[in-house]
Amino acid sequence: MGIIIGIDVGISTTKIVGLHEQHVLSPIRITAVDPVTSLYGAFGKYLHDNNISLSDVEQVMVTGVGSAYIDGPVYGLPTGKTDEFIADGLGARFESGLSKAIVVSMGTGTSFVQCDGDEIRHIGGIGIGGGTVQGLSRVMLNTSDPKQISSLALRGDIRNINLLIGDISSRPLPGLPMNATASLFSKAQYDAPREDIALGIITMVLQSIGSASILSALNTGIKDFVLIGNLTLYPQCKEIYPMLEKLYNVRFHIPKYSEFCTAIGAALNFRQQLGK
């Protein structure tokens, strides 16, 4: 069997992986000014960096909002499309090893996909995600660069931004420790340091996504959530989601290739279509 190329085409960012005999090969990400340029740039770089020839590729599978711009074969290769939510579910299930979970795809906004065995279905979403971090940072910090925002946030103190249970009570409330959030951004002052603001923005977005994820699973019996997408790269995930796990008795999982799960799922969908 040849290599299956999975490509997740965003508006300006494309993620690409190769799948060979159920092994993920060297995923990469490319940013360009438009989805078509991004796709072809990512594809060419991927083949070059991994010493793969076109004859080694069995199939190309594209997904994501930018895939609508791709109407024909990529580099003359057989090319198919995968529904983005199906790709989310397949990729997250493959990478996490979980057959029953809610997949939380944290992109520009956030979508929720329920996986239960072979059943994968989109159950909703919220308009909060990486786009929220970038937009608020553009207004409040005069930057939308994720690396700069993350760097600032690492030096921030969330106690100067969020109102915590410890600020309003002399003892923990039932089920709520002293460091739990009572109100996001409630303590922020007009002259707050940029570092504190950056941390406040990231914390607000990640906590909101976590809370919405848990609510999306009500009455399903599901306790596992697989986080995928670029926001999983923020170091604050390692602090915020374990705290939510303790509060709500759930489990958040961030797979090894979390930001590439949708591209992996697109490639997997080809084998699924063939019944292999």
Structure, explained:
With 276 residues, the chain is of the alpha/beta class. It folds into 2 domains: 3-81, 2-Layer Sandwich (Nucleotidyltransferase, domain 5); 98-255, Nucleotidyltransferase, domain 5. It contains 8 helices and 12 strands. Helix 2 crosses helix 8, helix 3 runs antiparallel to helix 6 and helix 6 (194-216) runs parallel beside helix 7 (237-248).
Q: Which class of secondary structure composition applies to the elements?
A: alpha/beta
Name the poorly predicted regions. Answer: none
Mean pLDDT: 93
CATH H-level name of the largest domain... which superfamily?
ATPase, nucleotide binding domain
How much strand content do the residues show?
Answer: 25-35%
Multimerization status: single chain
Calculate the terminal CA-CA distance, rounded to whole Å.
11 Å
Please write the CATH class name of the largest domain: Alpha Beta
Compute the number of helices.
8
Give the overall shape.
globular
Instruction: Give the fraction of residues assigned to helices.
Output: 25-40%
| Integer count of domains | 2
